[in-house]
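Duplicate of #3305? Posting structure anyway:
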């Protein structure tokens, strides 16, 4: 065999061996990247704690990108508040005396502010002016390249992973992109599961048609109000609001009524769709007349002309009010408030129950 042919064959074999070695490296990388998928899926499906899931994902990426240094950062959607998710001896130099990031490179700010471009790879970062704020950190550890990926938690925060690499151990761009895509997919799945859990929790406590508390949730929450009132010698009032409309309840009309009620009371007061044609409110008060003020304010709001087409509102409400500590339990409070509401005999307005009698105003409580 001619020498030239022999050299050509040898060269082709070397190229082939090199390609095989490269493919084996890629195979091992992909195999490692997805080897724990069953465990990760199981953790997400079981709704593991968010902090535990994030920590597991951090460890996974650090092991996967063993020749890179992974930095995990969280910022708000306005890119004004930044913090490290995790710190160690390497990243400590980026923090000030209050354990906050002392500065943020412009390149990182620009990346975080561009959600339409969730991945980015910067090379020769030691020479880039957009990374100058972290230059001591980059030079001390000989970092030359950085790959970044960002994921929004849909709650106003952006989670960013930065994989810093040294020139001599840089991972192939395709494999790095694969790792970043995997991180983003798992992180999105974790956030979606957490959001689903929150929605399920809210759905179990609130009526989806009105946004108001379901009956059992109201009872639990108002029970806490009564315990707190008993402990601190405070007053509370329970309202029973009967819908006077005999028509089939329209959910859209009911939602408008719920919104008006919510605007009438404070954020920490309680409102529930208690029964098909009854809503209840539980509020903390300082004086007996405070409950009257709330009832009068609500009725005045409902008389607005903008609700004239709302059959549920235009037909009126009968409001009965009972007080704690005159009644010591939710059951007796509700019974008294409902009795006061029924005393209106299907006319719109409010009545106050006080020691077994119904009154038009609290000023009559102690009159002879």
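Output from current build:
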């Amino acid at each position: 065999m001619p020498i030239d042919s022999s050299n050509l064959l040898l060269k082709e074999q070397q190229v082939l061996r090199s390609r095989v070695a490269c493919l084996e490296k890629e195979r091992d990388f992909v195999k490692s990247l997805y080897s724990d998928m069953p465990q990760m899926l199981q953790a997400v499906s079981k709704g593991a704690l968010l902090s535990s899931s994030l920590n597991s994902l951090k460890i996974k990426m650090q092991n996967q990108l063993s020749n890179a240094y992974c930095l995990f950062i969280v910022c708000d959607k306005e890119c004004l508040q930044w913090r490290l998710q995790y710190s160690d001896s390497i990243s400590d130099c980026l923090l000030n005396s209050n354990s906050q990031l002392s500065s943020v490179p412009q390149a990182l700010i620009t990346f975080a502010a561009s959600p339409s471009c969730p991945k980015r790879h910067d090379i020769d970062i030691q020479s880039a002016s957009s990374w100058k704020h972290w230059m001591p950190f980059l030079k001390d550890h000989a970092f030359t390249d950085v790959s970044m990926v960002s994921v929004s938690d849909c709650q106003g925060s952006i989670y960013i992973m930065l994989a810093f690499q040294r020139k001599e151990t840089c991972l192939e761009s395709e494999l790095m992109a694969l790792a970043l895509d995997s991180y983003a997919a798992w992180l999105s799945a974790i956030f979606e599961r957490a959001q689903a859990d929150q929605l399920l929790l809210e759905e179990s406590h609130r009526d989806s048609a009105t946004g108001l508390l379901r009956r059992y949730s109201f009872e639990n929450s108002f029970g806490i109000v009564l315990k707190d009132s008993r402990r601190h010698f405070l007053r509370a009032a329970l309202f029973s609001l009967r819908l006077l409309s005999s028509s089939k309840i329209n959910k859209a009309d009911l939602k408008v009524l719920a919104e008006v009620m919510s605007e009438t009371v404070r954020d920490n007061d309680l409102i529930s769709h208690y029964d098909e044609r009854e809503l209840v409110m539980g509020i903390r008060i300082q004086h007996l007349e405070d409950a009257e003020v709330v009832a009068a304010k609500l009725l005045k709001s409902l008389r607005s002309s903008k609700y004239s087409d709302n059959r549920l509102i235009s037909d009126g409400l009968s409001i009965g009010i009972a007080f704690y500590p005159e009644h010591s339990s939710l059951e007796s409070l509700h019974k008294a408030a409902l009795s006061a509401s029924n005393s209106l005999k299907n006319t719109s307005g409010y009545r106050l129950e006080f020691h077994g009698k119904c009154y038009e105003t609290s000023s009559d409580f102690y009159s002879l």
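Confirmed duplicate; merging threads. The mean pLDDT is 89. The CA atoms of residues 88 and 110 lie 25 Å apart.
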